[in-house]
Amino acid sequence: MEQTNNKMNLKSLAGITVGVIVMVLVQHFFFKAPSFDKQMMQAASELNKTCPMMVDKETQLDNSVALPEKTFQYNYTLVNMVKDSIDIQSFKNYIEPIVTNNMKTNPDMKFYRDNKITMSYYYKDKNGVFVIKIAVTPDKYQ
Q: What is the largest CA-CA distance in the chain?
């Protein structure tokens, strides 16, 4: 009788073990949390629903994109300027501290700070000509 109970206990234990393994596998393959890359793409997609949008009288946010290597890029157009008339170094000296400070202090950027995202700001002129790209890497805002 005791041997029969031990066999039943072993069968029950084996059944429970198999059940737990199946449950874990089902959760892993069918109910995965979205990957980090997918979260970044979703954030870009949500923002892009509001684009294009004027940021100020000179700058239009055209769209955003999630890029490889934990980079999130904003694409802007300087709507009243052509590249030849822009002092690019002065523009960089002006805009880089602003975007870096925003990354450091804006509560909306917490997700990006926590995940050590590089924020990239890509600017083109009113004719679509590339002007400058500024990258705010984690070492600049941590």
A: 95
What average pLDDT is seen over the chain?
84
Could you give the CA distance from residue 140 to residue 142 in angstroms, rounded to a whole number? 6
pTM: 0.74
- For residue 119, the SS3 value is strand
Q: Are residues 54 and 110 in the same domain?
A: yes
How many domains does one find in the chain?
A: 2
Structural contact between residues 121 and 110, judged by C-beta atoms closer than 8 angstroms: no
What average pLDDT does range 59-88 have in this prediction?
A: 96
Computed on alpha carbons and rounded to an integer, the radius of gyration of the chain in Å comes to 26
Band the pLDDT of 35: cuts 50, 70, 90: confident
Residue 31 scores a pLDDT above 70: no
Q: Rounded to whole angstroms, what are the CA distances from 55 to 52, 134, 135?
A: 9, 17, 19
